[in-house]
Amino acid sequence: MSGLFRIPHPALALVCLLWAGCSHAPCQKNAVYQNAPIQALLAGCYSGTTSIHDLEKKGDFGIGTLDALDGEMVVLDHAFYQIKPDGKAYRLTAKDTSPFATLIFFKPEKEFFQDQEVTYEGLSRFLDEKLLSQNRIYAVRIEGVFPRLKVRSAARQSKPYPVLTEAIKEQKVFELQDQEGTLVGFRFPSYMQGVNVPGDHFHFLNKDRTLGGHVLDFRATQLRIQIDEIPGLSMELPENQEFLKFRFEADAEEAIQKIEK
User: Fold this and answer.
1) Quick one: fold of 10-105+233-260?
2) Would the pLDDT of 14 be above 50?
3) Sequence ranges of the chain with CATH classification 3.30.1330.80
4) pLDDT (tens digit per residue) in 210-239
5) How far apart are CA 140 and CA 106, in angstroms?
6) Band of the pLDDT at 4, cuts 50, 70, 90?
7) Does the domain at residues 110-230 carry the CATH identifier 3.30.1330.80?
8) Distances in whole angstroms, Cα of residue 117 to Cα of each of 52, 222, 240
9) By three-state DSSP, how is residue 244 classified?
């Protein structure tokens, strides 16, 4: 195995050790679940490895993508949705698969309200003030009114898959106006670069569960913010040849900045 791929970041090595330990002892009940590191997605490992049927056992709240990078995934209140490049939301079936998903059984421990209008940047500053540490993982659910949202959805890719920075050149970026809905996302610490997206990462789903996307920017008001502080992470490494034989780049920071912004 050592000749097939190299670990791209010390944090990923640590998580892999924790994951290996979980195969021999019970993991923390409220741990975030991932079915792959974000580095694999950056590298173009888009083949679905985990079915929605299996993901339903891992969490009722989360985000991800679908086989062949076919749109954005949003998991809210036990329901799994696919956001297509036209921004429309569709319910996923148990047989659909995902190459990358981040899930939790959401149990909010803190709740805040923000009635003043804020932007994405303003919300991040608000969370900085309210959260006690930048070194923990948080699941964040935000309900509110969104006069404007700038969102995107990835387009389905064909093999041989390009790396993600090339694939997102085909993404559809669009604006949603005057929506009520929910931001579903996570805040990961900076030292987990290569494992997940450091900082805030949100997908949006409107109140009617008909529209959404990966969030790039927004204006929002009347926010109800719920926080679940998470003590650990459990990650399964893909077993397909696409993952096992790929040689990962050492630094994911620049690529993540491109795909997130």
Assistant:
1) 60s Ribosomal Protein L30; Chain: A; (3.30.1330)
2) no
3) 10-105+233-260, 110-230
4) 999 999 999 999 999 999 999 999 999 988
5) 9
6) very low
7) yes
8) 36, 8, 46
9) helix
For residues 94 and 21, give the distance between their C-alpha atoms in angstroms, rounded to a whole number. Answer: 29
Q: How many CB atoms lie under 10 A from the CB of residue 99?
A: 26
pLDDT in tens, 119-157: 999 999 999 999 989 999 999 999 999 999 999 999 999
Q: What angle do CA 57, 62, 68 make, to 5 degrees?
A: 90
Q: Please, are residues 212 and 13 in contact by the beta-carbon 8 Å criterion?
A: no
Q: What is the pTM of this model?
A: 0.86
With b for 16 or more beta-carbon neighbours within 10 A and e for fewer, the 18-42 pattern comes to bbeebeeeeeeebbbbbbbbbbbbb
Neighbours of 67 (CB within 10 A): 18
Average pLDDT in the chain:
87
Q: Running DSSP on this structure, what letter comes out for residue 198?
A: B
Q: What is the pLDDT of residue 138?
A: 98
pLDDT of 241 reads 82
Residues 41, 27, 108, 189, CA torsion sign: negative
Q: What is the pLDDT of residue 209?
A: 98
Q: For residues 88 and 106, what is the distance between their CA atoms, to the nearest angstrom?
A: 25
**b/e code 224-259 from CB counts within 10 Å (16+ = b):** ebbbbbbeebbbbbbeeebbeebebeeebeebbeeb
State the DSSP code for 28.
P
Q: What are phi and psi of 66, to 5 degrees?
A: -115, 170
